[in-house]
Amino acid sequence: MKNKYRILGITSGGFEGFSGVNNNLFSEIGKKYELIDIVDNKLSGFWKYYNALYCFLKTPGFNKYIKPFNEIYHGETSYYRFRTNYYFVERTKAAERILKERTDEYDVILQTGWIPAILEQKQIPRCIYTDYTMKLSEKEFPQWSTFLSDKDKNKWIQMETKSYKNANAIFTSSEHTRKSIIYDYGVHKEKVLTVYEGTDIEKIPDIDKKYDYNIILFVGVDFERKGGYILLNAFKKIREEIKDARLIIIGSRPKINIEGVEVKGFVSYIEKMHYFSIASVFTMPSFAEPFGLVFLEAMAHKIPCIGTNVCAMPEIIQDFETGYLVEPNNSEELADRVISILKDHELARKMGTNGRKRVEELFTWEKVVKRMSIEFDKLI
Q1: Chosen CATH of 201-362 out of 3.20.20.70, 3.30.2270.10, 3.90.550.10, 3.40.50.2000
Q2: Start and end of every Glycosyl transferase family domain (predicted)?
Q3: Residue 297 CB contacts under 8 Å (≥ 6 apart), including other chains
Q4: What percentage of the chain reaches a pLDDT higher than 70?
């Protein structure tokens, strides 16, 4: 039986945005509440291209004038067009217009991410679900906090701060992000709640997994940030110890030709599930990771996971229990940890079983929404 509350979602990228989080989150919310609609307030039409042109003209350097259009549009210009005050302000205006028109239709607003800005507190509760902050980007991966000017950056952080302070509740993907919102932005800790992210555990059967294939799996689009080249260096040492070890790379297409490395690029959901089913160990030694949803998928498949000891990864992977945590940019340590798992099938089985149990207990979308529900009950 559904709860009587009516929820309106606000997103960027619609149902499929936010790395698939929107789809899973709002699908689960729809099981428990009356989900009125999911509003995608991204820039479109003339204003989308106006913003892109502005960013193109402001992007430093002259190389932009000689690069192919698609390369510059989807490269630097694409990066900057999501980091202008114009983008923040216009998306906020669009959201406010929609909310005003539909004010009698909902009891609570849930937006994924901190855009649009919440300019003031209103009678109808408004909640934010986010996995990272701009302040964390500054400290942990400065490439994500580069703006066209310091003025743009300062204004952005002011609006981000206003959103957090005016929200009735803030749900975070990790305790790491929760602490940033409290200490970096001065938000009262009582209204910031860690709810984590989830996976569709019911779609992944609990099988008697085999660890015989010596397959190392990497899944990620941003190969460099996610430590892909560190893993390639580690793989050289791994192959010296385990001659038939294979590394399968999904989501990225690095231009490499290394024996034992298979670059698959983008694959279908069914193909990805196949590679999870045959992998002996999953590793993504990221330099920075807002959360790391793919670790949950791997753990649900009973695969031992190796990540780094930064950002939210220590909240997902229990060191020596569900896998290992290593230092970023340390291929030697990474290789040793992978080798220890590939050589010891009982260790792999123990870690894989522990990982599956941890996902079932903590990281399902049903449990994420249940944690949110506690706060909804207080607000409505």
Answers
A1: 3.40.50.2000
A2: 205-358
A3: 199, 204, 219, 276
A4: 89
